[in-house]
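Suppose a classmate hands you a notebook page containing two proteins, each written out with its sequence and a corresponding row of structure tokens. How would you begin to make sense of it? This section walks through that situation. The first entry is reproduced here exactly as it would appear on such a page.
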Amino acid sequence: MQEYIQRNIDVELLEWKNNPMRKPLLLRGARQVGKSSAVRHFGKEFKYFAEVNFERHKAVKTFFQGDIDIRLIAQKIAKYINVPIEEGETLLFLDEIQECPEAIMALRFFKEDYPGLHVIAAGSLLEFTLQELPTYGVGRIHTLFMYPMTFDEFLKANDENGLIDMKGQADSRHPLDDAFHEKLVDYFRIYLLVGGMPEAVLAWIKTHDFNQCSRVQEDIILTYDDDFSKYKKRVSPDLLRTTMRGICHQPGEKITFKQISADYRSSQIREAVRLLTLAGLTTPVVATSGNGIPLDAEANEKNMKILFLDSGLLLTVLQLEGNLAQHLIEQIMTGNPQELVNKGGLVEMVAGLEILRNKPCVQRQRMFYWEKSGNSIAEIDYLDIFNLKVTPIEIKSGTQGGMKSLWLFMREKHLTEAIRCSFENFGEFSYTDSQADNAVRHITIVPLYALENLQKMK
């Protein structure tokens, strides 16, 4: 049996189990991010674990047809898979539930007619099925979103809980000792290459061989390619492949549809991006004016950067096209930290993924950035909300004088707090802005390996 790697969602699942107001749980996320493995591991908390896979157990679909009697359906499943289904004793796991839309529709009735039974559903390409259903019980179903592994989860997998504790206790006034800082920077370099797909991380732990990780990542990319034919019949799989690869060529950059392909119209590529986002493979970072909250009130969906699901998979996509990734890999392993941050859109992308994955997983999170065009283009990599205020987050290794966009944004929006993420140690500095009534602007420096700490600053 494959060894299980501890995940952050384990805590969420335990809280759900013990909640007396519990609802059926729908676990959503891209293929192979570890949804089924997490549920199977969680199943050890119960006396019985009853798993139905609708791709494998096709006959079970018939149980959900016609009039819905949830307790009768549970009895039929128990007999079919030969596992007792009892309130408080059994976890019922309905996997690949997208293959049975009737089962998705029936989830809400577990809350109404069988509230004592613990039920979790998950599936690949689930979002497409949900879009086509008139309703699936919103309000009577609890949802959690799952992503590839965060850097902290990667450290846990490498038995580096001490490093997690040390950086969790550090802050701008209590930086880490140099030895711990350097070790974390080295681990983050490895994380950029291995990524957070559980199977690739497991390959790294067992072999410490990047080639073994690449083989796993190639298989995952091929799986995604195979899935493209299932997205929607009216969308060309070639368009989806072309769009995915085009996005991988523009990490950290504002997406230009013409650069993705001259063979398709912008409207076609935009639809492909929408479908890739539904599948969990991409996350748009949308431009916004950043004048106040909510940030999406002034969002401009026409301008966006796009985060690809995983850095390891992105490098694999580039490698499959030739040797395009080799210079990136060499830069990650041997480049000095300042070059790596300032020249690498990949680092900016991974920072965005870290910010995204460490947000609460109970809802689909949206990501934003700021840009100002004109004689000189200004851009802030990410905008977020801290203490009910818009806060700019710059992924930079520059000095105070090298952050013109940051000063411009803070001055224009009358802000006094910002965050800079780099390979520097924890720190802070203040700047008296002589161009804006001598306002004192404060910058908190958060290392790229400690983006999980941002949640504590909220």
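The notebook's second entry, a different protein, reads as follows.
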Amino acid sequence: MLTPLSIPSPPVEWQGLNITAWLSSTFGWNLPFTIDIRTYALCILVGIVLAIIIASRRLTRRGAEPGVILDIVLWCVPLGIIGARVWHVLTHPGDYFYEGADPWEVVRIWNGGIAIFGSLVGGAVGAWIGCRLSGIRFWTFADAIAPAMLVAQAAGRFGNYFNHELFGQPTTLPWGLEIEFSNPAFPAGLPEGTLFHPTFLYEIIWNLLGVAVLLLLERKLTLQWGKLWGVYLIWYGLGRSYFETIRVDPSEIIFGVRSNVWGAWLAILVGIVIIVVQTRRHKGLEPSPYRPGAEWVPPSAEVDSSNTYTDEELEGEEAPAATENETIEPSATSEVGAKS
């Protein structure tokens, strides 16, 4: 008898490490506070680092100062996290606003609960502030980070896998995801051993495929002025609008549609508007990744003369030697000596 294939969920112990308990059991150190390292958080951090590296290299190739992206992400990341939390809370009000609820639970992001669409809104605000301060064109930065965002989102989805969460409807497909019957998110009424759609895997594949599509379109069509960012919004919105419909986790329903599906549709609409508006406004290529008057000048371009000398070369010399096309005029002293 053949055993059906499936994707096993990782052990629950892999969801994180209690540093306080580990230090106590290993070294006998009893800390007065608790330190937890969550695998989900590590996946998000890995995604952020990958996005920064990729976008930085893309900006540098456009002519931006190496490392300037750090001046922008210092605003993007915190505002993106705040936006992600706000979006989640607003789309799951029943989890935070009820009689007897702890009001501080709204800000306890370490207990879980962030939304990508909120991070896009908050991150965009942070990007605009960072670009204004650094002199980088906002749309240049947006195009540079567009494929990097898909890489970051793919890395972050592994966190859902480790957390045994946000899986899809039951399936008999050979790549069905195993979820333990004791999981609070296990749908009531289904028998133990039911397999579910691995929506985390679907989105990872969709996002990585999107990276290839964006890079190909950028090369073939020379998409600038934010148009590549528009393509990113459309691509991600299309995939998310489907994946969201097969998930079984609870969500706020607006006019019969999950709130995140509305967010995906909004992303598609915004992406289309950006492409149409920017195509009409900008016919040519971006002249520079910097706004006029804020251009960065490489150190090598600040040297006026091509002839430079080191201290060692000039040591003991009163003047540079004459070239073979130059003559040294005799000084007044030498003329007097010649007459006498």
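A careful reader of the second entry would note: The first strand starts at residue 16 and ends at 18.
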